[in-house]
Amino acid sequence: MSIITDAAVNEKGNRQLLGAFLRRRREALDPARLGLPRVRNRRTPGLRREEVAQLADVGVTWYTWLEQGRDINASAKTLSAIAIALQCNEAETRHLFRLAGHQQPTLTAAKACAKVSAHSQIMLDALDPLPAIIENKRFDILAHNPAWCRLMGIDLNSLPPEERNCIWLAFTNDAWRSAMADWEEVMPHMVALFRAQMGDHLGEPEWENMLERLMATSAEFRQTWQRYELKSFENRVRHFYRAEVGQMALRQNNWWSTPRNGDRLLVYVPDDEISAAALAKLTA
């Protein structure tokens, strides 16, 4: 007599839920929007199984078994291809991976937040002449307005995407660093924020690669990292310096777009009249 464990029952239930989810996603798609040829004798809405299999570059029989909830293994790479074929959003992709017994790769999540919407850029541009950026949890700069570039004395659009990161620029870009009048205070605070954020992403390639690059490039970062300090985000006054206008005190205000992906809007507002006049002159 065999004993069926709770884990086996849960796994079987998840396979059935996965199959149901795949069918619903497939039936919800419009073949015309995906550029697929029209077929007159479509008896069911959405895509056919063979069309999904073709888009995901998997076998039709294998995909059919997956929809039927059979006991087959799907790699993370294959699941990612299926998620793309089925036009899954971030939440749906995460759900797909969870039902299949996999942890969603960081790359999938990274792609979801690799760029901001046109509406977000419109918002940033409307905030000008207040310097503003949107960055993710890893401090990658996803979008910015012209006032931010003038404040930091650097053209972000001229930099490759892998260098558009606040911590990377702080430790590697002379113009960026010279614009930070409170470097000795801000620098360890940034490192402590990065360490605290990384605690939720240990072992993830993008985070590990970022840390390795910083450790290999900056002795100052290495020394500060060894302090093992952790900080949380807060609205605080930052001090900047530009030769054209002198020093400015600007209050950093933080807003989060959604709690899950961690994208953060930073807006810098003058903290006094002298700083307001200096910023107005700088961004005129």
From TrEMBL:
Top-level taxon: Bacteria
Domain HTH cro/C1-type: 21-93
Alphabetical list of InterPro entries matching this protein: Cro/C1-type_HTH, Lambda_DNA-bd_dom_sf, MLTR_LBD
Residue spans crossing the bilayer: none
UniProt-recorded Gene Ontology molecular function terms: DNA binding
Record's keyword terms, sorted: DNA-binding
Name the UniProt record assigns to this protein: DNA-binding protein
Biological source species: Winslowiella iniecta
